[in-house]
């Protein structure tokens, strides 16, 4: 069986760190409220002039270096973002140019906070289908550019950043113990558009718009759907939550993550947490968490890793892999 294995990870966080207390004299909010309701303590914001592709390129370079792969050895780039530099071309092509690549494919995937899970499943399908041997998968966002700074229910929750992984095809023996991506589960339900959306766009307002969210409703869907999709992906791989070594969840809210771990019967020491330091970086949150945990040496070869995410659409999904 041909499988896609993660052979390198990388990430980049903009230099500017903003603590919760920064919001206290701008809005009717407090460090205590943000911390206790979301688990977020600080987040990074991109500098003026620093675009999504700039963050993505830095994460990409680190992932390639750690994988020991030259840009010219890649067959393609799949990049998840909802905050592209421009309407087109795809941010992925700007990263491609930045890496000095002139061959292979490069395109963006847009599934908001679930974007990286969708991109990873997409790249995995291409590798298994024989369209590519090596794919760079990136999640990169500058959500600070679509915040309504007067809405305390949203602007305290998000941050900027980028993470990347290099996927490489490996021929395995076909047992569930083989390394690589074992199964994925992807879902969308567009009837929930109004729960989480950006109120602008090229074909409507002609503006970039700002993020609008009914947080408590999204919260309820998240708690139910994240455990469900993780179970489904595990089931497809012939595995159960008892087999899981690491849960690497989308980092939106500590209470959502804790509830999902509970529903999967997983102790919190098997859960990778970066939400306190990064906030919600949308499609960047999972590759950021993977890269940070990888850097800390937390994953061993053969560990069963489950990622899951939900975001605007609603769109949600899970990818199960052996490290
Ligand atoms: N500071 C102080 N009070 C606040 C703040 C704030 N920053 N924000 C909201 N409040 C108030 C509300 O106004 C409300 O007050 P009221 O009762 O007087 O009306 C009260 O706090 C409770 O508000 P809720 O929204 O019910 O609070 P909740 O416990 O649900 O927490 C939160 C809000 C953190 C947004 C939570 O709902 C959440 O995390 N939701 C999910 C977010 C998410 O996962 N999004 C999906 C991914 S994002 C993507 O795809 C882009």
Automatic annotation (TrEMBL):
<keyword id="KW-0444">Lipid biosynthesis</keyword>
<keyword id="KW-0963">Cytoplasm</keyword>
<feature type="active site">
    <location>
        <position position="250"/>
    </location>
</feature>
<feature type="active site">
    <location>
        <position position="113"/>
    </location>
</feature>
<dbReference type="Pfam" id="PF08541">
    <property type="entry name" value="ACP_syn_III_C"/>
</dbReference>
<keyword id="KW-0511">Multifunctional enzyme</keyword>
<keyword id="KW-0276">Fatty acid metabolism</keyword>
<feature type="domain" description="Beta-ketoacyl-[acyl-carrier-protein] synthase III C-terminal">
    <location>
        <begin position="234"/>
        <end position="323"/>
    </location>
</feature>
<dbReference type="InterPro" id="IPR004655">
    <property type="entry name" value="FabH"/>
</dbReference>
<dbReference type="InterPro" id="IPR013751">
    <property type="entry name" value="ACP_syn_III_N"/>
</dbReference>
<protein>
    <recommendedName>
        <fullName>Beta-ketoacyl-[acyl-carrier-protein] synthase III</fullName>
        <ecNumber>2.3.1.180</ecNumber>
    </recommendedName>
</protein>
<dbReference type="InterPro" id="IPR016039">
    <property type="entry name" value="Thiolase-like"/>
</dbReference>
<keyword id="KW-0808">Transferase</keyword>
<feature type="domain" description="Beta-ketoacyl-[acyl-carrier-protein] synthase III N-terminal">
    <location>
        <begin position="107"/>
        <end position="190"/>
    </location>
</feature>
<dbReference type="GO" id="GO:0033818">
    <property type="term" value="F:beta-ketoacyl-acyl-carrier-protein synthase III activity"/>
</dbReference>
<dbReference type="InterPro" id="IPR013747">
    <property type="entry name" value="ACP_syn_III_C"/>
</dbReference>
<feature type="active site">
    <location>
        <position position="280"/>
    </location>
</feature>
<comment type="function">
    <text>Catalyzes the condensation reaction of fatty acid synthesis by the addition to an acyl acceptor of two carbons from malonyl-ACP. Catalyzes the first condensation reaction which initiates fatty acid synthesis and may therefore play a role in governing the total rate of fatty acid production. Possesses both acetoacetyl-ACP synthase and acetyl transacylase activities. Its substrate specificity determines the biosynthesis of branched-chain and/or straight-chain of fatty acids.</text>
</comment>
<keyword id="KW-0275">Fatty acid biosynthesis</keyword>
<comment type="pathway">
    <text>Lipid metabolism; fatty acid biosynthesis.</text>
</comment>
<keyword id="KW-0012">Acyltransferase</keyword>
<keyword id="KW-0443">Lipid metabolism</keyword>
<comment type="similarity">
    <text>Belongs to the thiolase-like superfamily. FabH family.</text>
</comment>
<feature type="region of interest" description="ACP-binding">
    <location>
        <begin position="251"/>
        <end position="255"/>
    </location>
</feature>
<comment type="subunit">
    <text>Homodimer.</text>
</comment>
<dbReference type="Pfam" id="PF08545">
    <property type="entry name" value="ACP_syn_III"/>
</dbReference>
